Amino acid sequence: MLDRVGRLRLPKGYTERYGLRRRVRLTAEDDHIGVRPDRDTGQDGEEA
To answer: Where is the composition biased (Basic and acidic residues) (predicted)?
Structure first.
């Protein structure tokens, strides 16, 4: 779901299962958008 300003909102179960915290990386694929944890940030979302 996108919120009113265009941010992607994911269900809590997905964010917990895949370790998604504050920042993520998006990749444009031919048939989908990939969402991955941002490896440059720590567990609390602060830059490492």
So the answer is: 29-42
